[in-house]
């Protein structure tokens, strides 16, 4: 087992860990979490022998084989397949012995060397490495390409494949999902579930941690705090601790009670409604999550979006691509105010291409893309991190957007994104990837868009910032289009999905569980063979026609659901106002009467909306049953 005893670890004069204690048993799968800069990667370097402890002791069994993702790749001329096989050091040593004994001509030694190579899996190594590359999204024709031909994100995938290739007792993965798409994350989850050794993962992907780990080590106040279970269990258990320390948690519970009251009414009236159940689960999940982040350094919200005509954007037979290469053909879709769309599709299918076109950065090759009056787009993409002015400070970046605002108000705003003191006034260049992503998001939120286009917004963000972004998006009243491998962000903020596949974009009838099934079916070629081409085309045509019939009904249900939520929140606010004893004093009689009138009006409106929602949901259920 791994034993960490009274450990102190410093980065310069600053202590990352002080008197930290932890025990990790063989075969356990552990998520190592904590805010950016708290010492997670330094602890990994210590476990690998790359750093020395300032005090205390770390013991790892001497016989254990360790494997870890390299953060930098030097063998740029090495073919990808060979680079991955290099991760199995025992295998490469066995191959070297074979070459050496064959050069020496000793028959007995040659036989022994070949036996050792067989025992090391030498004759299946290329197939195993190829399987890893395929699982991580590499095409077969790319297996022999030099490592240097791949972009930075794909090199990280090669580093991950190399670590998985090693038959290890301890596997350490630092942010393995950062440069993966959704389907590759699902593949990695399945692989890690089968891994028999001890696993330690640094990750800010809560759903990934829930799927893979059985315990959590949280770096908090320079200590290691252990929790049993996945990330959701950690949130619940830590919330119970924080509940005794934070008065804000009690206030939060009162607000959740109002939400729960609405859930109870909602469930009683439509217990079988798919949309109702989805929203109930999201609200119940919020009840568990919120307390664990009560001490988060992040607090921000989107301003009310400016009004714009409907549709915000419309695409009519649009084709997209780069030069002579066409990525998407004949796209005809529209975005309405308040739409919340998640884009699904395999890597390279064209999700980012579509988002760039919606953002106005990629003109259509064919067709027509029309923007409405009053459209204001907020676009987040990874390349924008590199477009920041490295010599300017976060404060100066914001002052360029708002020259009329006072410096103090801008400092207060940046504080909500955890930019304080010298970090708010110092140059951007030395900031980490996560800090730059926070700054880009801060600039985007400040501009008050009515359409958000988010292309992998959670890359480099820690769990607290991801939670703050999720909460802010839940309160955003404008339209959102999101590309993300973070399933929690999608399920918490998205109401409908578009599937980008086979050069087309179409509404996807289902949720992420349905998409996972779609991926499984797509990856089963034998199923394709069993179904004739004509029959399959007919099936697709029937499914498309059914989706078109259901779409207006679904849109009405979703619109009414949002209106019911808004009315319910308004009623809850008025009820909280009426709970103030001071409101019933004689001099406030006029104010009391006004609040009571508004309460009555909003209750009537809520009741009418709920009745409309029930009728719309029943119509949708009847249409789906046909």
TrEMBL record:
<protein>
    <recommendedName>
        <fullName>Probable ATP-binding protein YheS</fullName>
    </recommendedName>
</protein>
<dbReference type="InterPro" id="IPR032781">
    <property type="entry name" value="ABC_tran_Xtn"/>
</dbReference>
<feature type="domain" description="ABC transporter">
    <location>
        <begin position="2"/>
        <end position="246"/>
    </location>
</feature>
<keyword id="KW-0677">Repeat</keyword>
<keyword id="KW-0067">ATP-binding</keyword>
<dbReference type="GO" id="GO:0016887">
    <property type="term" value="F:ATP hydrolysis activity"/>
</dbReference>
<dbReference type="InterPro" id="IPR003439">
    <property type="entry name" value="ABC_transporter-like_ATP-bd"/>
</dbReference>
<dbReference type="InterPro" id="IPR017871">
    <property type="entry name" value="ABC_transporter-like_CS"/>
</dbReference>
<dbReference type="InterPro" id="IPR027417">
    <property type="entry name" value="P-loop_NTPase"/>
</dbReference>
<dbReference type="GO" id="GO:0005524">
    <property type="term" value="F:ATP binding"/>
</dbReference>
<dbReference type="Pfam" id="PF12848">
    <property type="entry name" value="ABC_tran_Xtn"/>
</dbReference>
<dbReference type="InterPro" id="IPR050611">
    <property type="entry name" value="ABCF"/>
</dbReference>
<dbReference type="InterPro" id="IPR003593">
    <property type="entry name" value="AAA+_ATPase"/>
</dbReference>
<feature type="domain" description="ABC transporter">
    <location>
        <begin position="313"/>
        <end position="527"/>
    </location>
</feature>
<comment type="similarity">
    <text>Belongs to the ABC transporter superfamily. ABCF family. YheS subfamily.</text>
</comment>
<keyword id="KW-0547">Nucleotide-binding</keyword>
<dbReference type="Pfam" id="PF00005">
    <property type="entry name" value="ABC_tran"/>
</dbReference>
């Amino acid at each position: 087992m791994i034993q960490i005893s009274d450990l102190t670890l410093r980065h310069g004069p600053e202590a990352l860990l002080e008197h930290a204690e932890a025990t990790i048993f063989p075969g356990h799968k552990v998520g190592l979490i904590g805010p950016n800069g708290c010492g997670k990667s330094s602890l990994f370097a210590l476990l690998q022998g790359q750093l020395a402890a300032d005090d205390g002791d770390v013991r790892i069994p001497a016989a254990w084989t360790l494997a870890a993702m390299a953060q930098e790749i030097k063998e740029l001329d090495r073919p990808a397949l060979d680079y991955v096989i290099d991760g199995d050091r025992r295998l490469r040593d066995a191959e070297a012995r074979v070459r050496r004994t064959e050069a020496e001509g000793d028959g007995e030694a040659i036989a022994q060397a070949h036996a050792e190579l067989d025992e090391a899996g030498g004759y299946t190594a290329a197939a195993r490495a190829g399987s890893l590359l395929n699982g991580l999204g590499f095409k077969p024709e790319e297996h022999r390409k030099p490592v240097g031909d791949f972009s930075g994100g794909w090199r990280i995938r090669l580093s991950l494949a190399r670590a998985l290739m090693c038959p290890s007792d301890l596997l350490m993965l630092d942010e393995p999902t950062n440069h993966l798409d959704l389907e590759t994350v699902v593949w990695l989850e399945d692989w890690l579930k089968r891994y028999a050794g001890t696993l330690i993962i640094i990750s800010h992907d809560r759903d990934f941690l829930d799927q893979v780990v059985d315990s959590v080590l949280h770096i908090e106040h320079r200590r290691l705090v252990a929790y049993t279970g996945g990330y959701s269990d950690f949130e619940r258990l830590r919330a119970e601790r924080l509940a005794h320390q934070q008065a804000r948690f009690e206030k939060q519970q009162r607000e959740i009670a109002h939400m729960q009251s609405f859930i109870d009414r909602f469930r009683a009236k439509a217990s079988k409604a798919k949309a109702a159940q989805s929203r109930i689960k999201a609200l119940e999940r919020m009840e568990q999550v919120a307390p664990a982040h009560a001490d988060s350094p992040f607090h921000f919200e989107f301003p009310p979006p400016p009004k714009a005509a409907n549709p915000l954007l419309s695409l009519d037979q649009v084709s997209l691509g780069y030069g002579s290469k066409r990525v998407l053909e004949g796209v005809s879709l529209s975005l309405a105010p308040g739409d919340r769309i998640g884009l699904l599709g395999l890597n390279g299918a064209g999700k980012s291409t579509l988002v760039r076109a919606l953002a106005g950065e990629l003109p259509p090759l064919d067709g027509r893309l029309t923007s409405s009056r009053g459209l204001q787009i907020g676009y987040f993409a990874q390349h924008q991190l590199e477009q920041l002015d490295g010599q300017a400070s976060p404060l100066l970046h914001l002052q360029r957007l708002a020259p009329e605002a006072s410096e103090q108000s801008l400092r207060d705003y940046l504080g909500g994104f955890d930019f304080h003191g010298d970090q708010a006034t110092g140059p951007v260049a030395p900031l980490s990837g996560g800090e730059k992503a926070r700054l880009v998001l801060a600039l985007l939120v400040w501009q008050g868009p009515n359409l958000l286009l988010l292309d992998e917004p959670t890359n480099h963000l820690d769990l607290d910032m991801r939670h703050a972004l999720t909460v802010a998006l839940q309160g955003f009243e404008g339209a959102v289009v999101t590309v993300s491998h973070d399933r929690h962000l999608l399920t918490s903020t998205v109401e409908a999905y578009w599937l980008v596949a086979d050069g087309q974009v179409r509404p996807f009838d289902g949720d992420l569980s349905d998409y996972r099934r779609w991926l499984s079916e797509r990856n089963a070629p034998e199923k394709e063979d069993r179904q004739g081409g004509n029959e399959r085309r007919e099936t697709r045509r029937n499914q498309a026609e059914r989706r078109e019939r259901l779409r207006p009904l679904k849109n009405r249900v979703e619109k009414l659901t949002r209106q019911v939520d808004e009315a319910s929140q308004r009623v809850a606010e008025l009820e909280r106002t009426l709970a103030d004893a001071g409101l019933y004093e004689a001099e406030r009689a006029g104010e009391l009467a006004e609040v009571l009138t508004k309460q009555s009006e909003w209750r009537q409106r809520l009741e009418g909306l709920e009745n409309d929602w029930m009728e719309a949901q029943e119509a949708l259920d009847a249409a789906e049953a046909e």
